[in-house]
Design goal:
Elements: E1 3-6, E2 16-20, H1 27-35, E3 39-45, H2 49-61, E4 68-71, H3 75-82, E5 87-90
Parallel strand pairs: 2-3, 2-5, 3-4
Antiparallel strand pairs: 1-5
Length: about 90
């Protein structure tokens, strides 16, 4: 079961933003986009360009492209850039 860590206790003004590193197919991010009400955005990141393309395709297939953005970066830099703005999703 994945564990989630809230990095800010201040309620977001315009909805929650989620960042998932090491997202692979982006399935968890798709579920966030489909099942969590009031999201502002979901960023699914994977270092693999093939995985990032699959994330984008899965977002489109599931009708959540307006919320879910695929990213292909080094997760260490993505996390540090977003750490004060997002709920970070980490898999166990």
């Amino acid at each position: 079961m994945p564990e989630f860590q809230v990095v800010s206790l201040t309620p977001p003004q315009h909805g929650l933003r989620v960042l998932e590193g090491l997202a692979a197919s982006g399935l968890r991010s798709v579920r966030f986009a489909l099942e969590v009400p009031g999201l502002q955005s979901v960023t699914a990141n994977d270092f693999s360009t093939k995985a990032a393309a699959l994330i984008a395709r899965n977002a489109q297939y599931n009708g959540v492209s307006h919320l879910l953005q695929a990213s292909c970066k080094d997760a260490r830099y993505d996390y540090s850039a977003h750490s004060r703005k997002c709920l970070l999703a980490a898999s166990a």
